[in-house]
Amino acid sequence: MPPSLASQALTFSQKLIQWYHRHHRDLPWRRTTDPYKIWLSEIILQQTRVVQGMPYYLRFVEKYPTVQDLARAEEQEVLRLWQGLGYYSRARNMHHTARLVVGEFDGNFPNNYAALLKLKGVGEYTAAAIASFAFNEAVPAVDGNVYRVLSRIFGIKTDITHSSAKREFTAAARQLIPDNDPANFNQAMIEFGAIQCQPVAPDCLLCPFNEMCYAFEHGAQNLLPVKSKKMKARNRYLNYLVLEKEGRLAMKERIKKDVWKGLYDFPLIETPQEAKIPNDLIEANPLVSWIKVGQLTVPQKTYVHLLTHQKLHVKFWQIELKNAEMSTLPEGVSFYSEAQIESLPKPILIDTFIKEQFFT
Ligand code: SF4
């Protein structure tokens, strides 16, 4: 039988916090109780590893040291600074929330879990993290690390992809979190999952919980947490028409509700399968005139780009206009110089392509 939670709560939290004091990484957002900086770090770190998120956090804090600074920024500037991190709706929500905090709360973040939860882009985990780290409220912050630690130690076999899982694991964590030190408890749970009880090869021999851990006792580390198979990613075939004229490229802002909204890319034709010859594009879209006006280079390479639920197969069809004239450009498309393009927010794939092919 797995150890019962309530009877183990005190020992568990004491051991965990002790472990945290000895082993935690010194990360800049852990040295502050400023809710703005904690919020910033939490938004940046959603679905992002610490090493990848760290330079972004440092850049944002340097450029926007206060929530007022972030609120004053243009959205395009915020997206440009975010470029490469993916999930751009996070950046847009973050900017929106900064403006709301300044406009409605005089620049002060709400100081409790329930009120934080009402902010755009702030879910249960993030609200709990800010409420505990900045305001010491005893509310558990439950992320993937916490699922793993609790399921392994206490033998919880609920499938973490099921809708009931969040409720169940949060209730378990609520029984364990101490009222007198919730900030360190939450930090410790997350850190323990990140560096000790890792998904693959957890360090069980040097673990302070190995005498009470269900997974260790039963050799079930690889079976917990229980997670049913992921949804298969949807394949999409994107063909970019890269119109070049006198060293400038035709680009447009993505305004539709789709991936990369608010970022800039090239005119696009999406095909049901991989397009191999110009006719495949012509069949898919009457933007054919663009192909005929200049010198077309059929791409030899397909870039594969993975998003959470989509696998993008991307081709860049380059069209050099030379002296040819475009009679009209479609709505929203304009030519941009190298310097202008540099300042536009772009998906990292587009940025890489431009740097490879045009402006190194
Ligand atoms: S004994 Fe192993 S599986 Fe159990 S908590 Fe420690 S590191 Fe994780």
Summarize the structure.
The chain is α+β, with helices and mostly antiparallel strands.
Note down, in words, how this protein is organized.
The chain is an alpha+beta fold. The protein has 2 domains: 214 residues, Endonuclease III, domain 1 (Orthogonal Bundle), CATH 1.10.340.30; 124 residues, Nucleoside Triphosphate Pyrophosphohydrolase (Alpha-Beta Complex). It is built from 16 helices and 8 strands. Strands 1, 2, 3, 4, 5, 6, 7 and 8 form an 8-stranded mixed beta sheet that branches. A hairpin with a 3-residue loop joins strand 6 and strand 7. Helix 2 packs antiparallel against helix 8 and helix 8 packs across helix 11. It is elongated and about 80 Å long. The protein starts with a helix and ends with a helix. The protein binds iron/sulfur cluster. Iron/sulfur cluster binds next to helix 9 and helix 12.
List the defining traits of the structure above.
360 residues, alpha+beta, Endonuclease III, domain 1, 2 domains, 8-stranded mixed beta sheet, 8 strands, binds iron/sulfur cluster
Helix residue percentage = 40-55%
**Could you give the distance between the termini?**
61 Å
What is the radius of gyration?
Answer: 25 Å
CATH class category label of the largest domain: Mainly Alpha
Mean pLDDT comes to 91
Which ligands, by name, code or SMILES, are bound? iron/sulfur cluster
CATH superfamily of the largest domain: Hypothetical protein, domain 2
Query: Architecture of the largest domain, according to CATH?
Result: Orthogonal Bundle
Kindly state the number of beta strands. Answer: 8
What number of structural domains do the residues give?
Answer: 2
By CATH, the topology of the largest domain is Endonuclease III, domain 1
DSSP helical segment count: 16
Q: Provide the low-confidence segments as ranges.
A: none
Q: Helix- and strand-based class?
A: alpha+beta
- Order of secondary-structure elements: HHHHHHHHHHHHEEEEHHEEEEHH
- The shape, in one word, is elongated
Largest sheet: 8 strands, mixed
Strand content: 5-15%
